[in-house]
What does this fold into?
Amino acid sequence: MNKLIPVAAAIALSACTVHRQANVTDVDATSGIVRLTYGQAPLQSAATDDYVANGTATKQCQQMGYATAFAYGQPVTTCTVTSGSLCMNQSVTIQYQCRGIAVTQTPSTNYW
It folds into this structure.
């Protein structure tokens, strides 16, 4: 019986972190800002894969003519659903700054 307690505790604690996919929610082409957002329920520790989020932001930046995206600032957490004084759902926003100029190659004509 005593051997089951650490196993149950490990299972309970491993279920606390939830992986979320961050989606593009705001784009400002003039200043080169891309914001990605994901949701977080109460009693959860939601996280997103930084590599995938950076790829999503870079793709959006390239559509605007920039070369790449760099994360800046801290994630901004906003309560989206409240019940009394409790926050029932949070929205986490990650900001990226687009940098560089995307170089597009035109198809070259082969004269050989």
Summary: The chain has two helices and six strands. Residues 10 and 107 are 56 Å apart (CA to CA). The beta strands are 17-19, 23-28, 33-40, 45-47, 66-83, 86-101.
